Amino acid sequence: MPDSTASDRNVPYAIRAYAPDQLIDALRKMYLIRRFEEGAEDSYTRGLIHGTMHLSIGQEASAVGACMSLTDDDKITSTHRGHGHCVAKGADLGKMFAEFFGKETGYCRGRGGSMHIADVEKGNLGANGIVAGGIPIAVGAALSAKRLGTGAVTVCFFGDGANNEGAFHEALNMASVWKLPVVFVCENNRYGMSTSTERSTAVKSIADRAAAYSMPGERVDGNDFSAVTEAVDAAVARARNGDGPSLIENVTYRWRGHSKSDRNRYRTKEEIAQWQERDPIARMAAMLTEHGIIDDASVAAIEKNVEQAVEAAITFAKDSPAPRVEDATRDVYTPRAAA
Amino acid sequence: MPDSTASDRNVPYAIRAYAPDQLIDALRKMYLIRRFEEGAEDSYTRGLIHGTMHLSIGQEASAVGACMSLTDDDKITSTHRGHGHCVAKGADLGKMFAEFFGKETGYCRGRGGSMHIADVEKGNLGANGIVAGGIPIAVGAALSAKRLGTGAVTVCFFGDGANNEGAFHEALNMASVWKLPVVFVCENNRYGMSTSTERSTAVKSIADRAAAYSMPGERVDGNDFSAVTEAVDAAVARARNGDGPSLIENVTYRWRGHSKSDRNRYRTKEEIAQWQERDPIARMAAMLTEHGIIDDASVAAIEKNVEQAVEAAITFAKDSPAPRVEDATRDVYTPRAAA
Amino acid sequence: MNAQAGIEVREISYTQAIREAMDIALSEDERVILMGEDIGVYGGAFQVTGDLVDKYGTDRVMDTPISELGGAGVAVGAALTGLRPIFEFQFSDFATLAMEQIVNQAAKVRYMLGGAVSVPVVMRFPAGSGTGAAAQHSQSLEAWLGHVPGLKVVQPATPEDAKGLLLAALDDPDPVMIFEHKLLYKMKGQVPSGRYTTPIGKAMVRREGSHVTIVATAIMVHKALEAAKALEDDGIKAEVIDLRTIRPLDRDTVLESVRKTGRLLCVYEAVKTLGIGAEVSAMVAESDAFDFLDAPIVRLGGAESPIPYNPELEKAVVPQVPDIIEAARGLAKGRT
Amino acid sequence: MNAQAGIEVREISYTQAIREAMDIALSEDERVILMGEDIGVYGGAFQVTGDLVDKYGTDRVMDTPISELGGAGVAVGAALTGLRPIFEFQFSDFATLAMEQIVNQAAKVRYMLGGAVSVPVVMRFPAGSGTGAAAQHSQSLEAWLGHVPGLKVVQPATPEDAKGLLLAALDDPDPVMIFEHKLLYKMKGQVPSGRYTTPIGKAMVRREGSHVTIVATAIMVHKALEAAKALEDDGIKAEVIDLRTIRPLDRDTVLESVRKTGRLLCVYEAVKTLGIGAEVSAMVAESDAFDFLDAPIVRLGGAESPIPYNPELEKAVVPQVPDIIEAARGLAKGRT
Ligand SMILES: Cc1ncc(C[n+]2csc(CCOP(=O)(O)OP(=O)(O)O)c2C)c(N)n1
Ligand SMILES: Cc1ncc(C[n+]2csc(CCOP(=O)(O)OP(=O)(O)O)c2C)c(N)n1
Ligand SMILES: [Mg+2]
Ligand SMILES: [Mg+2]
Cβ separation of D285 and C308 shorter than 8 Å? Predict the structure, then answer.
């Protein structure tokens, strides 16, 4: 909620809009995402994790910034690259690691893994293994909110690659026709797997596609926490106010490969290095320091605390029981009281 | 091919671009479409036609105008409302009626019916029972033309309703990314079945969606033969020249119901009457008369000739043999010479 | 059937029965919404929703754009978050556009999330041939969904079941897919007024007999009953089972009958190969009823071809009453 | 196999065999193009296309946007007009997005147009579980396409067949769907160099035996062979048939074997209900081989659940070698 007395032009939006503890918490979440994923990567290398995983390291400002003005009643839909969204929406790291390790204590009791982590209580309707699969679902959640009058807003995350799926088109069109409370957040990290937006997407800025649905579209520096927050907060307020959907394009970059099988042949080391210089976490820490919200020592303390939290989460996950093989086909259908 | 010496601003494009015999032939085709469909309607009422049918009466300028600069090597893909496109591309009316009557002499040997009429020799790849089903196929035909260097252009017809299908989005995006020789012609007759564009489509003009694919988009009066021709010819030339796809929106109206089961509860009689005043055929005839290409007597002669052609076609179809029931499962697979 | 007191039984059509079920659901439960193409003022391509929009308004009887994938996905998302959508496909053939949301999302979300959610969505699919609508508007694709764990799939054959199964589907916390044969829409039958449910997962013996078991689905139930009547003249007593639900299959009802008759004929309109008859046959052939079989298990399914437009050809590619009579006669040979 | 002279046989992987087939096709026929997501510089999600883009360029090895419906439709349109596209789905699960173009268009256009055209498109589907990719990346959906007239559907189990069937598919004027099990990609086997084709529609007896017939598909062929070896120690001689094509089914090879052994076990990874084993079972049960059956027909298919992520659970929901041994033992009881 912007504090109008401090609306100095030189003060970034986020600093004006949020209290220091909220900002510090946001920074902490960004660190949590980073360390969580580094921990996951490490666990993968040690053979503790089965399957594949998609890391969002380098994209933390987008995840955390986009969730700043959401409550637990608000919903998000996420993607295969969804750890950041999950943490940003308030998930428990232990349950996340437990899911990675395929444990009964995981968010999906070990049935879903990285690509299906959800945290329904906190409003995270789930990652999705299908590119753009979550977009119509987000619109459905927004329809529920409107019909049931809950006042909830849905933030729908997806990648640049997803914007070429038919589901994107159909869902944005319906959201606009029905004026639903949903914010479409495209995390444009320049590639869908190996295919650059130039080679896949017939428009310069994905935000420009908003015009095809008569909704506002805005392209922002997705590694600038304040810019993300400013754009998404306005869109969330608009949605909450009954004015319908918006499309925000957060321009960002993933530092790691697409998944664990990526040989990185479609981009250069230089490009990666350039983007690493625009590290969203370092920029957030610098912004908070510059505006006197935090000092270097506290940053260090946060980092340390986050490392401990990740370690504790890994330990919890390791020590957790695996699901029983006899239960492999449980939860296909919902149990019902005998008639 | 525009005749530059006659490029008087007051002379419509079509008059400048085409020779009198071409224009007269176009007018004749428009009559053919109208009478063909009236004949089909009549046959339906008499129980000669099975199933349903979708009439394009009122939309003749779009079909004929869009095919003016095409050769038999150029392709079109059509829709459930495709009789006009088929006639415009040069089809034989007898084979069309025979198809309606389910006869072995029909374009599809009685297997396809109204919704699947095709005329492959003339470059009509077929109507389609799936809304937007032909759009990716058109892009595929354009890909063939580009790869095989045939120089052919594909005109892809579809309705306003189709523009909300995912296939529309995916296909236009690919056509643009790959710069393929295809012209997307949206026949916006204001309704997809009963649902108006206002209630289904989150953009005022469908042509505006072209911007989402970085291709030119133009909205024209689809009942004005010259306007259609001017826009489509330019797009065809652009495609043929290797400059990629375009989207043209022909604003038009269907006088009849969506199909034979329509109770017309979603629009008013007044609206229909207003559009009937903008009859594309009357306007075409008036334009040709005004510019001295044709006189009233010749118009009457054409009408008479067309009526005879339709009658002859119906007779041919009626007299044609039905397919043999034993052949019901023929043509599922392509026969091959024994190995 | 599990009905309330004070009911009245009237003759109404299959279409009216479905509409009545939706009307009851809409009036009883604010969370119920209808979604689909042209289901509002048009009343639906087959006039199933009819005038419901006049009673409940466009917020609860929602015309969607022509966007099957997105529309089905919106229904799934709405079901996940508190609504109870009934999504109508205009023709079951268009489910081909929405398999992603039906199969990857609706059917699997609960399992993938370890049981944290349910997806109470109902989808209706007008299916089958016989209307002259040719290959892209005449398919019977229920077997695809029958192959998908997480879904329940029903095929009501009578107005009574059409209403009862729809109300049961709405009571069900999981996604239920309802295939309605288009040629049944105008069929009339006795239907109780008010709320009742027909159990999902239970087949029904429509006619008892001891010489041959005919397991049929949807419109084929009626053709099988007609055939059974004719067979009686030959002294052949056919038992006709209306499968009603294809996922989960009612093994017990089928097996019990086969143990009695020793002969099984499966009749369905979908393409024979990998249609529901394949599963019924295989289920019996691997059960203890196998030992009771006195003859090969015969299937009558649709031809291995798309549905043709020409009406004579169209009839030729799906089983007809004489085909059933002939097959049953062949099976029952030596049995009577 | 129908091979040329001057061939050399080497041990290469299933992946290499497919790539070699595509390489031969690309070099021999200008009309052949590859389309798919990340098949260019990335080499494909499973590295099947590998470096082909370096040799043939991006015009012939085309990365598509993430647009399965549109991409498949472009391939269909291209096939209709002179090209011979090989379209790769990144995972077979994403075919759910493209069923419209595969089923309504590719499979039916020829028929709907009375034979005026053919659609020589080849589609490749990496399928199956075992990679820890969970429910939306592990499905076996081949039975859906096996239910669709107009398509041909193959499931190569060996590197040799992977190459031969792909070249046969390219020679075929009609749409051919190739399901490749992901766990086979790294499997090595003897593969002839140069051009040869493996006939579509022909099963192969991989091991002869007289006590029980095991009909298996894809990776289950190898599990069945392993089981057969173990069964030999019990004195049970299992005949293992690799179905190879699921549409059209090779009835003769299966029936001949069942007439000999009198016992049939079908093993497949797809969900048991309405999977290919249902059709094989039903086909046998309605044939004259029925009279040769000495025991119920047993099916081992995938569990009635989505594929779980946890590796132990993941193994538990698809048939494993011990399951096959146990089932075959049960069947062969009293036979040896
Ligand atoms: C429908 C579908 N197609 C393809 C894939 C395989 N796939 C997974 S992620 C991905 C790239 C997605 O790109 P983008 O949307 O930009 O997200 P990013 O990975 O960059 O975060 C692809 C092709 C998939 N999971 N689902
Ligand atoms: C995928 C699909 N969805 C729905 C339909 C049913 N249907 C046939 S035509 C039509 C309306 C199409 O509207 P539009 O594209 O504007 O074409 P028009 O009929 O106005 O010419 C609908 C909904 C269909 N055939 N295919
Ligand atoms: Mg991306
Ligand atoms: Mg329209």
Answer: no
Candidates B326, D77, D279; CA nearest to C308 is: B326
Q: Is the pLDDT of residue D28 over 60?
A: yes
- What is the model's pLDDT at position C135? 98
| Mean pLDDT of the residues in chain D | 97
Q: B131: CA distance to ligand 2 center in Å? A: 5
pLDDT in tens, A7-48: 566 899 999 999 999 999 999 999 999 999 999 999 999 998
Q: How far is the CA of B210 from the centre of ligand 4 (A)?
A: 18
Q: CB-based contacts of D6: which residues, under 8 Å, 6+ apart?
A: D194
Residue located via tokens 């998908």: C148
CA separation for the pair C194, C7 (Å, rounded)? 6
Pairing of strands C84-88, C32-36: parallel
Tens-place pLDDT, residues A126-168: 999 999 999 999 999 999 999 999 999 999 999 999 999 999 9
> Which member of D137, D181, D211, D222 is catalytic?
D137
The SS3 of residue C212 is strand
Angle between helices B134-148 and B166-177 (to 10 degrees): 20
pTM of the model: 0.98
Pairing status of strand D152-154 against strand D245-247: antiparallel
d(CA C33, CA A178): 14
Task: Answer positive or negative: Cα dihedral of D102, D103, D108, D112.
Answer: negative
- Residue numbers in B near D74 (CB within 8 A): 136-137, 139-140, 143, 171, 174
- Whether residues A161 and D66 touch (CB distance < 8 A) is answered with yes
Whether pLDDT at B203 is above 70: yes
In chain C, which segments carry CATH 3.40.50.970?
2-197
What are the phi and psi torsion angles at C269 (to 5°)? -85, -30
Strand partners, A251: A188, A221
Annotation says D286 is catalytic: no
* CATH no., domain C2-197: 3.40.50.970
D110 touches chain B (CB under 8 A): yes
Contact at CB, D74 and B135, closer than 8 angstroms: no
Average pLDDT over residues C268-291: 98
Whole-number Å distance between alpha carbons of D200 and D87:
18
pLDDT at residue D6 in the model: 75
CB A235 within 8 A of CB A216: yes
Q: Which CATH superfamily is domain B17-317 in?
A: Thiamin diphosphate (ThDP)-binding fold, Pyr/PP domains (3.40.50.970)
Closest CA to A27 of A64, A76, A81, A66: A64
What is the C-alpha separation between A186 and A222, in angstroms, rounded? Answer: 10
Q: What is the pLDDT of residues C75-84, one digit of tens each?
A: 999 999 999 9
Distance CA D291, CA B303 (A): 71
- Could you give the strand order of the β-sheet that contains D204-207, starting from the edge strand earlier in sequence? D204-207, D238-242, D212-216, D264-271, D298-302
Strand D188-192 with D9-13, pairing = antiparallel
Q: Output the CA A246–ligand 3 centroid distance in Å.
A: 19
State whether ipTM is beyond 0.85: yes
The CATH fold assigned to C204-332 is Rossmann fold (3.40.50)
- Looking at chain C, which residues constitute the CATH 3.40.50.920 domain(s)? 204-332
CA distance D43 to A261: 11
- Reading the block at residue A99, the tokens are 């899911």
Which of C59, C199, C33, C45 has the alpha carbon at shortest distance from C121?
A: C33
Residues of C in contact with A112 (CB under 8 A): 112-114
The answer to whether C272 and C303 have CB atoms below 8 angstroms apart is: yes
Q: Is the CB of A57 under 6 A from ligand 1?
A: no
pLDDT of residue D69: 98
* Average pLDDT, integer, range B296-312: 98
Q: Which helix (H) or strand (E) holds C107?
A: none
Parse chain A into domains and list their residue ranges.
Answer: 17-317
Are B202 and B36 within 8 A, CB to CB?
Answer: no
